[in-house]
Amino acid sequence: MVAELQQLFLHTWAAQGGSVLSPADYLPTPEHVGNAVVRAIGSSPDDPYSQIYVTLIAALRSAQSEVWISNAYFVPDPQLLAALQQAAGRGVDVRLLLPSSTDSWLVLHAGRAHYSALLQAGVKIYERRNALLHVKTAVIDGVWSTVGSTNLDWRSFLHNQEVNAVVLGAEFGDKMRSAFVADQAQATLITLASWQQRPWRIRIKEQFGHLWEYWL
User: Fold this and answer.
1) Residue among 32, 92, 99 at smallest CA distance from 64
2) Does residue 121 sit within a domain?
3) How far apart are CA 92 and CA 106, in angstroms?
4) What are the 10-residue block averages of pLDDT along the chain, 216 residues in total?
5) CATH of the domain at 173
6) CA–CA separation, 216 vs 213, rounded Å?
7) Coil, helix or strand for 99?
């Protein structure tokens, strides 16, 4: 894992025109520590596709019992939206923990434009109260986890340089689940009935945000 992160750093450093760094100084012999399988996955707008995105979609499609996701900037593309809806349709417990306030009102409302479709599919949506949620994590079936810099929006998957760690193991998965439950206790459950009662001024903001979501 450490070697993968170092390789990603060296590659990005060189791509940005940094001075030559000797691998001998930055890639020490790795030691085997711990019992979890861990991988560092990076993505760049120069790549033909986002490996982080592909890995997440594959995990969602394989989910059997739980998909618990926390994310700061949620503006799903059609494939991600479908993967979440299909998982809920299979009986998977799909939960999204999202912000109730943000530093980008446009992103917030662009994401909320998809709430109705997700709620109708059986996805549970929670909005974190009294905090600026900045988490980007997922835990699937209690054994597949990811944490990193990637938001679930078009900008992260298409336009940004990002890095995530993917961890396979029940011990780390339990810690991720506990952190999610703690945040969920400080969040408000959004129901379909309550969402359908939101005012028209909010709906207009959602449609405006939806128009710009490719660049968000």
Assistant:
1) 92
2) yes
3) 30
4) 89 91 82 87 90 96 98 95 98 97 86 96 96 94 97 90 96 97 97 92 83 70
5) 3.30.870.10
6) 5
7) strand
